[in-house]
Amino acid sequence: MIIPKTAEEIELMRHSALLVSKTLGEIAKVIKPGVTTLALDKLAEEFIRDNDGIPGFLGLYGFPNSLCMSPNAQVVHGIPNNIPLKEGDVISVDCGVLKNGFYGDHAYSFEIGEVTPEVKKLLTVTKESLYVGIREFRIGNRVEDVGNAIQKYCESHGYGVVRELVGHGLGTKMHEDPEMPNYGKRGRGKLFIEGMTVAIEPMINMGTKNIKQLKDGWTILTADGKPSAHFEHNVALVDGKPELLSTFGYIYKALGIESNEEDEFRKNPLVL
Q1: Helical H segments across 31-97, by residue range
Q2: Residue 270 pLDDT more than 90?
Q3: What separation in angstroms does the CA of 74 have from each of 163, 177, 184, 211?
Q4: What is the pLDDT of residues 207-235, one digit of tens each?
Q5: Planar angle of CA 108, 109, 113, nearest 5 degrees
Q6: In this structure, are residues 123 and 251 in contact, taking their beta carbons and an 8 Å threshold?
Q7: In 3-state terms, what secondary structure has residue 54?
Q8: 91 forms bridges with which residues in the sheet?
Q9: Do the beta carbons of residue 126 and residue 229 sit within 8 Å?
């Protein structure tokens, strides 16, 4: 059952989402070759707690850390470790926060030093597909309209769209209805309703769409060992249109990137 949120609840969710955004911005300041994912995980947990939040992933379904850190051929759910990141890596950093009774949950794929042109294109297309999907999150549309838009965009570039892992509703629980797949047929799935809040998150592989799982019970890998990319935003349906609750702005500020990609999904400019 889809649980619509009041205007007041959406504002609380915005605070939760923005704490995730700020945490990812802190990660962006220090992520580089030689840094371990476990060190980044510790930084994230301390920052979240210092800002009156609770790490949303830590202990969720038994997950052992505050961040999912998934480099290169890892798609999602990678467990932080003491292996240093190296030049040319790409890594999905997925973060969750519980604050004021509501969850925020989004992700960004970082370049570590200089990556290959092929990897850079994968990241660009995957992030673009996120906004392609968000544009379909509006009154009159259905769940698979979002997935169909993402799928067509990514497959037109020759990439594999993961089927087994999907986005989701978000609220007082990390995972609410509906599931938000990154594939589908137009006109199918649950009808969008005013006030609903979701996490839209394309998980796109350079090669095959097929995946496998490590024996740790968490880490998901591409079946062919090629890189994967993952970007995620939290979005509310307000006045019939998508409104971003999260932002990549803190990441861009840390990395010196200028972008207006989020402007069309905000009523008011975001002050960082």
Answers
A1: 37-50
A2: no
A3: 15, 26, 24, 9
A4: 999 999 999 999 999 999 999 999 999 99
A5: 130
A6: no
A7: strand
A8: 71, 110
A9: yes
CA distance 143 to 95: 24
Position 272 pLDDT exceeds 90: no
Q: How many other C-beta atoms can be found within 10 angstroms of the C-beta atom of residue 263?
A: 10
Integer Cα distance of 256 and 153 in angstroms = 28
In angstroms, the CA 230 to CA 139 distance is 26
Instruction: Identify the DSSP state of 185.
Output: -
**Token pair in block for residue 242:** 């998508």
Angle at 75 between CA 85 and CA 263, to 5 degrees: 90
pLDDT score of 268: 84
Query: Who's near 179: CB < 8 A, 6+ residues apart?
Result: 143, 166, 167, 168, 169
Token pair listed for 192: 């969008």
Residue 191 has pLDDT above 90, yes or no: yes
| Average of per-residue pLDDT across 194-198 | 98
* DSSP code, position 224: T
In single-letter form, the type of residue at position 136 comes to: E
Helix (H) or strand (E) holding 243: strand 241-244
Mean pLDDT of 189-199: 98
**Residues whose CB falls within 8 Å of the CB of residue 88, separated by 6 or more in sequence, listed in order:** 112, 113, 114, 115, 116, 119
Report which DSSP code applies to 140: T
Distance between CA atoms of residues 138 and 236, nearest Å: 10
CA-nearest of 109, 81, 98 to 203 is 109
What CA–CA distance (Å, rounded) separates 122 from 126?
A: 6
Q: What local confidence, expressed as pLDDT, does residue 197 receive?
A: 98
Work out the angle between the directed axes of helices 143-155 and 117-134 (0-180°, nearest 10): 160
- Using the predicted structure, report yes or no on whether residue 103 has a pLDDT greater than 90: yes
